[in-house]
Structure formats: C-alpha cells, structure tokens
C-alpha cells in the first residue's frame, strides 16, 4: 500500500498539468477497480478542499468541491479513516456556504460519536439545524467556569491578569 498526498488528487481534479493528470487518472482507475490499494488521511482531504475552494487558486464553489472530490473518496481501494464522516462533511460543506470545511468535519464527527456539545466561539455553528433545534449545543468555554471549576493543579498553574482590558 502507498500513501497519497494532496497534489495527486489536485492534479487529477484540476487537470492543470496534463502529463501528471494522466498519471494520476491511471492510478485512480487502478484504485477504483481494486487493483491497487492506497491510503490517505483527513489532513490531506482537508488540504484538497482548501486548495480547490481558495479564491487565490481554483475558486470552486462548495458544491463543485464536493461533486469533484466525493467520488474519489468513495473509491473502493482508498483507505481513509473516518471516510463516512468526511463524505458527510463534504455534504454539509456543499449545503452551507458559510461553513468552513474544518467546521463541517467537526459536526460530522460529533454526529458519528453521538456527542451533543461542542466547545467553540464560532457562532456559525448556531446557523446549522442541529444547533437551532437543540440536538447539538455550542458552548463557549468561559461559560463553563461557572459550572465546572478547573482542577486544583490547573488553577495553580494559571496566570491571573490583574491589570489591563482583560482584568
């Protein structure tokens, strides 16, 4: 088994270098047929999404990114931990233009794990149905200090700000 880097997917998806794209297409065809098994990871998938949607590079819409990338993720010979969650994240990303892919991945993993609470200051989560209907909640860590005190060792190692705008 070999590990596939983001640039292999990008050359195939963008066809911006015909020679490299042909070689990548041949590789992915072998993977599709199950003649070769390759692996990648969440970081690589995230990089591909970032590059494809970047206004400075390819500027594809969230839907276009999903439509191009999902079929590759579904390939039979591609080993990818959390494959279902990443496909679900691509769907969320395509449905919500305000959502960063990393946030879509976080929501997909929360769904998979059955976790209802998410600690974040990012209010974009509040726009998703799960957060509006209460099946998931976004909490900001500063709110938790009134509910869950830090352990004594953490309190002893914290620096207390006594002056300035944060005091």
Outline:
The chain is mostly helical.
Main beta sheet strand tally, sense and closure: 3 strands, parallel
Number of strands: 5
Cα-based radius of gyration, to the nearest Å: 20 Å
Structural class: mainly alpha
Number of helices: 9
Query: Strand-and-helix sequence, N→C?
Result: EHHEHHEHHEHEHH
Q: Uncertain segments of ≥5 residues (pLDDT<50)?
A: none
Fraction in beta strands:
5-15%
Average residue-wise pLDDT = 86
For the termini, the CA-CA separation is 55 Å
Looking at the structure, what is the overall shape?
A: elongated
Write the layout of secondary structure elements.
Blueprint: E1 2-3, H1 6-14, H2 18-33, E2 38-39, H3 42-53, H4 62-73, E3 78-79, H5 83-95, H6 101-113, E4 117-119, H7 129-132, E5 137-139, H8 141-144, H9 152-157
Parallel strand pairs: 1-2, 2-3, 4-5
Helix pairs in contact: 1-2, 1-3, 3-4, 4-5, 5-6
